[in-house]
Design a protein that fits this description.
This protein is mainly α and about 280 residues long. The chain contains 9 helices and 4 strands. The chain has a two-stranded antiparallel ribbon. A two-stranded antiparallel ribbon has the order 3-4. It starts with 6 loop residues before the first helix and ends in a 33-residue tail after the last strand.
């Protein structure tokens, strides 16, 4: 079951998100307020930074940034020292990269074996790792929760109401935006695409793989849609495959249009599998 991701559609949705943010600022559309308090946000950042730095220590990798609160996107990355053009400011070891090679390390666990069984039972998952990452995200976030080894990272991910995505707008608010524009239609197309992908994957998964029957509460359509949008907005690509990369996914991937001195980052993997 592939991701069904149309990149031109995603670009349209980014444009619509910018328009929504401007409308919210002008009071045209009412936005959802985040319940994240300053104290809670600071504690989440502290927990994440300690977890991340602890796992980098054994590799001796460069770390010239830290996660921090952001007035724009809840959480972001702040440089801890001057960084020149083309200098490496962050290197993430393969043990912290959730991607195609991640599953070999999960073999022998209940979840890892269930994913392998699901792939045997339901062929046609595609080659970019979308479904595997989505199932991992749902399992760790909604089943394991604080018991997950990845909880310091997962608790930084926005909830649906915090994402600012046009996908979650009510139809009335969607119609109020850009009358006659193709952008609201793009949102509706994405909703149909995600629903079809869900229907292709989840009902057969619940029917054929006992492990997923036991965690069916994590596999609701609402949670599936949330995980799909997390992956579509936070995945980092190299070698034609998607990855979730803690810390790196807090960095802006595009230069800000109004600040000429800002530079987009570039990510690649070295011969050790370290993302730099």
């Amino acid at each position: 079951v592939g991701a069904g991701k149309d990149r031109s559609l995603v670009n349209l949705l980014h444009e619509l998100r910018e328009e929504i943010e401007s409308k919210i600022g002008a009071g045209v559309v009412r936005g959802s307020s985040s319940e994240l308090t300053d104290a809670d946000g600071e504690e989440r950042v502290r927990l994440f930074n300690a977890w991340f730095e602890d796992r980098l220590r054994e590799w001796g990798l460069p770390l010239r940034v830290r996660a921090d609160r952001s007035s724009v996107a809840r959480f972001g990355v702040r440089a801890t020292e001057p960084i020149g053009a083309e200098e490496v400011y962050l290197a993430v070891p393969p043990s912290l990269v959730i991607g195609p090679d991640f599953w070999s390390a999960r073999a022998g666990t209940d979840f890892g074996d269930a994913v392998l069984e699901a792939k045997r039972q339901l062929p046609g998952w595609g080659h970019d790792g979308f479904v595997e990452l989505l199932l991992f995200l749902l399992h760790e976030r909604f089943v394991q929760v604080e018991a997950s080894d990845w909880w310091p990272y997962l608790q930084l991910l926005p909830e649906a109401r915090e994402m600012g995505s046009p996908y979650f707008l009510e139809e009335g608010s969607l119609k109020a935006l850009l009358p006659g524009s193709s952008l609201p239609d793009a949102v509706r197309q994405l909703r149909v695409s995600i629903r079809r992908a869900y229907d292709r994957l989840v009902p057969p998964l619940l029917e054929r793989v006992p492990f997923f029957q036991q965690i069916r509460g994590a596999l609701t359509f609402e949670r599936y849609a949330w995980a799909s949008l997390i992956l579509n907005t936070r995945s980092i690509w190299w070698r034609g495959e998607r990855h979730l990369v803690p810390m790196l996914d807090l960095v802006n991937c595009l230069a800000h249009r109004s600040i000429e001195s800002m530079r987009p980052h570039r990510t690649e993997a070295d011969n050790r599998g370290v993302a730099v």
